[in-house]
């Protein structure tokens, strides 16, 4: 499988977890009134709850990716890295916004 196709598959899995992740993160940020808490929750509790949701509701989705040569561990690590990059960028933007 080509690298571009593989990256696209990792990103598709990541997109499938975003609704649960961002719903949890939004709920926390509304309680704390903080964009920073949204960013932190998106790669901690939101990430874990999204994986828990996939385990309970869409467990067969892992088999789809496994048949394409992508392991469950690879999906989880790449999902965490996507969330971490998003969170770091969001934190940098909020810090710069407060400075300006």
What descriptive keywords fit this protein?
100 residues, mainly alpha, 5 helices, 0% strand
Structure description:
The chain has 100 residues and is mainly alpha-helical. The protein has one domain (9-99). It has helices spanning 3-32, 35-42, 45-57, 61-67, 72-99. Helix 2 packs antiparallel against helix 5 (72-99).
Q: Helical percent range? A: over 70%
Determine the strand fraction and express it as a percent band: under 5%
Q: Whole-number radius of gyration?
A: 15 Å
User: Main beta sheet: strand number and arrangement?
Assistant: none
Domain count, please report it.
1
Distance between the termini: 45 Å
User: Which of globular, elongated, flat, extended, rod-shaped describes the shape?
Assistant: flat
Helix vs. strand class: mainly alpha
Could you spell the SSE succession in H and E letters? HHHHH
Average pLDDT, rounded to a whole number, is: 86
List the helices and strands and how they pair.
Elements: H1 3-32, H2 35-42, H3 45-57, H4 61-67, H5 72-99
Helix pairs in contact: 1-2, 1-3, 1-5, 2-5
Keywords: Membrane, Transmembrane, Transmembrane helix
Transmembrane segments: 20-53, 74-97
Task: Give a quick rundown of the structure.
The chain crosses the membrane at residues 20-53, 74-97. The protein has five helices and no strands.
């Amino acid at each position: 499988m080509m690298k571009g196709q593989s990256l696209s598959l990792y990103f598709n899995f990541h997109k499938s977890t975003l609704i649960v992740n961002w719903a949890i993160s939004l709920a926390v940020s509304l309680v704390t009134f903080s964009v920073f808490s949204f960013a932190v929750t998106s790669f901690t509790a939101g990430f874990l709850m999204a994986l828990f949701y996939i385990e309970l509701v869409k467990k067969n989705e892992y088999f789809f990716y496994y048949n394409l040569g992508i392991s469950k561990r690879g999906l989880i690590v790449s999902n965490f890295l996507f969330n971490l990059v998003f969170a770091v960028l969001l934190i940098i933007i909020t810090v710069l916004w407060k400075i300006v």
